Amino acid sequence: MILLTTQTGFLKPIAWLLGQIFNGLFNLIYNIAEWFTDKPYHVPIIGISVILFTIIVRLILLPMTIKQQKFSKLSGLMNPELQEIQAKYKDKRDQVSMMNMQAETKAVYEKYGTSPTGGCLTMLIQLPIMFALYRVIYKIPGYVTKIRELCGGIADKITGSGDDWATKLDAINGISVSASTGKATLIDKIYNLSPEKWSEVQNAFSSVDFGNAYDQIHGYNNLFGISLTQAPGWRLSWALIIPILAGLTQWLSVKLMENKNNVNVGSQNDQQAGMASSMKVMNTIMPILSAVFCVSFASCIGLYWIASSVVQIVVQLVINKKMNNKDVDEIVKENIEKANIKRAKKGLPPVKISNVTSKYVEQVHKMEARENRKEERDKEIKESTSYYNTSAKPGSLAAKANMVKMFNEKNNNSK
Question: Are 392 and 402 spatial neighbours (Cβ–Cβ below 8 Å)?
Answer without folding.
Answer: yes
